[in-house]
Amino acid sequence: MATQHSRSAARFMMAPAVILLLGWMLVPLVMTLYFSFKKYLPLRGGDLGWVGFENYVRFVTSSSFWPSVYTTLIIVGGVLAITICLGIVLALLLDQPMWGQGIVRILVIAPFFVMPTVSALVWKNMFMDPNYGLFAYLWKFFGAEPIQWMSQASIQSIIMIVSWQWLPFATLILLTAIQSLDGEQLEASEMDGASALKRFWYIILPHLARAITVVLLIQTIFLLSIFAEIFVTTGGAFGSKTLSYLIFQRVLESQNIGLGSAGGVYAIILANIVAIFLMRIVGKNLDN
């Protein structure tokens, strides 16, 4: 049993790491808040003084704000739906005994370790190029006109690319959950005459509820800040501009640090709203 002296020693040893992490998080946040109330144009006059909430009003009333929020939520929702549904299917398949099971699992998980910019470039040039991409050859083989993916189906293209990156993560979490399921329960239901569909619906799927909520929470937090895939593929054109990309345009392209910082505060607020909502879902599943 830990004594007061040992607990004090543990806190003392953890203090440097805690202070470093707090500084790592708080310093950028404080600077973002500070600049969001100023008119700061590095290449056009520098610091032009305090403007109060003018940056917040300008950012939220711009014609690009709500479309970017909508696009962000559409991409996040599409990626979550694909990765969770296909992740369950892949986890069930990988749980079955097969030849070379270890190699197959490594190949399935491998895309998660590819850099977002690299995977986006590969998909854009090798698969979705309207002239020389694999999809173009398939369309021509079946007598159809190739799709201009980056212009005609920009959001769908980004959802496909990002889903390919995050599918291994969802599969790994769900596979771990399936492997923790009591096999005797499945055997008993099979002996009672339950079909494979009923075993999945009434036994496997409820058992995966906690794993699904964890995947939902972690992926959503990261997907809300999606940027690299859009920058490499569409450049924010054709209705694919997300909130994070809009902030990038305000900061780097327009050189308006104050306006971009206000957008960053809005992004933090949006992420916290979604995180709180998902945490409530996770909490309910963990309590059941």
Explain the overall architecture:
It is a single chain. This protein has a domain of 176 residues: MetI-like fold (Orthogonal Bundle). The two termini are 30 Å apart. It is 74% helix and 3% strand. A two-stranded antiparallel sheet has the order 1-2. The chain is globular, with a radius of gyration of 24 Å. The protein has 14 helices and two strands. With 288 residues, it is mainly alpha-helical. Strand 1 and strand 2 form a beta hairpin. 26% of the residues are buried.
Give a brief rundown of this model.
The protein has helices at residues 4-36, 54-61, 65-94, 101-109, 116-127, 134-141, 149-152, 154-179, 183-191, 196-207, 209-223, 228-233, 243-253, 257-287, and strands spanning 38-41, 46-50. By secondary structure, the protein is mostly helical.
- CATH 4th-level superfamily of the domain at 65-240: MetI-like
Main β sheet profile: 2 strands, antiparallel
**CATH topology title of the domain at 65-240:** MetI-like fold
CATH architect. name of the domain at 65-240? Orthogonal Bundle
Give the overall pLDDT as a whole number: 82
Report the helical percentage: over 70%
Task: Report strand %.
Answer: under 5%
Secondary structure tally: strands: 2
CATH class designation of the domain at 65-240: Mainly Alpha
Note the gap between the termini. Answer: 30 Å
Structural class by secondary-structure content: mainly alpha
| Rg on CA atoms, Å | 24 Å
